Amino acid sequence: GDPIHSQPVIVNYGNNDSVIFIATNHGFLHAFDADTGTEYYSVTPKSLLSNIKDFYQDNSSYRHIYGLDGHMVLREFNNKKYLYVGMRRGGRDYYVFDITSKTSPSLVFKIEGGSTGLDKLGQTWSRPIITKMNMGGTSYNVMIVGGGYDDTQDTNQVKTADAVGNAVMIFNADTGALLWQASDSGADLNLSEMQYSIPGHIAAIDRDSDGYVDHLYATDMGGQIFRFDVYNGESGSDFIKGQRIADLAGAGNSDNRHFYYGVDVAEVALGSSNFYAVVVGSGWRANPLDDVVNDRFYMIKDTGVFTPDTNGDFTFPATITENDLFDATSHSLTHSNDSTRELAITEYESKQGWFLKMQTSGEKILSSPVIVNYKVFFTSYVPASSSTSACAPPAGNSRAYLVSLVDGNAVGDLNGDDELDENDRFATLTQTGIAPDTKILIEDATNPTICLGTECVSAVVPVDEDGNPEACASDFECLSQNIFGRYQRVMRGSWSTDVEQ
User: Which of 73, 213, 219, 306 is the 20 to 30 Å CA partner of 13?
Assistant: First the structure.
């Protein structure tokens, strides 16, 4: 079976004894010895057994059959190992396996979309976030997910409400019991704007590093961003309060922006101003060749987490729209004309964030952004206008972007023309097709590595024995070296994790 979207998970059982777990669209979770490739076992959910007949017939008239194609998340605790597995287009369930024994797994629980209380759970695209909350004085290990995907969004040309997926759900990570949910109706927190499915992960922030999550951010297929504030120890309506903080899509075809992926968040202190910088990019993942929607990359300033009301509760701004953001596309903040630059600076200072328009027809964001060292790293996909083969569709290519978190400007003179402008924001990757999520490898603390699929480069500028910088081998490498420049050591705490601290 093919693992299209599910990515392998490597689990260390001690003494350099590792097992690779792979989920495939044949519906099986496989466990392989990392050294020899020997398969220890494979398991499949009962709900996917009906697909076996179709696989056996191998009828070319069938559309691609999906099985276990979602995210897998490892949780290690109390000498136990749990693997949380989603299905993506394969179904509406999450499965949790106890893999403490590398040869004998067991099913801990199943979360079944469409069952009692879970009618809003759609296709399980959302990557589970495992953290802790205190609800009414009781501490829980929790699994936080978006409500998933409604596949009617595959064909919707305009902003259309969904029947499923329009929820944020919090489960007991030990038992699978639903603890809390938000949606447009019938939930613990009802918000009328929650009309669109939420396939992306939920960003979780532990602002005081006490192990308990304090803020959640969710994005949806309607181009909206929501924030939820967790008041640990409280119960009922006082436990979690939330509201929409941004609406960045429009009613027409060209403004029908989708957020398939979650945000990244970083705290910023800028002069006397404190805010959470919330970044996300739009793109129609189900239709990567679409060239109608005008996609964007956004940074919004969320100041409400630093401005409590008289009761001590965090506040919510009026819903931010694109009109409230600075258009940073043309790089006018560094314009050579003094008047143009000063006007741009004045406008920028009055706005609640910034956005970038994608510069090529059909260009879209199809992965999650990463904030590091007050810079934002993300990729885009540019569909090809024609195919080089009569037997294959046009593959297109991807770009890697690195911009300033604060204003969206380029952070280095990538093309060497002695000007810092919009052309220095991105490098075109050599691989074709849609680039996978960004991977950050820190095998050596002095030389963190950025990987996009098959392309891996250093994030620092290497120097020769005389201390002179060495020339970079590609535009992607030159771009990535602007993350840290000539820093001699990068501390692990600089990098973001699932629960930001």
Answer: 213
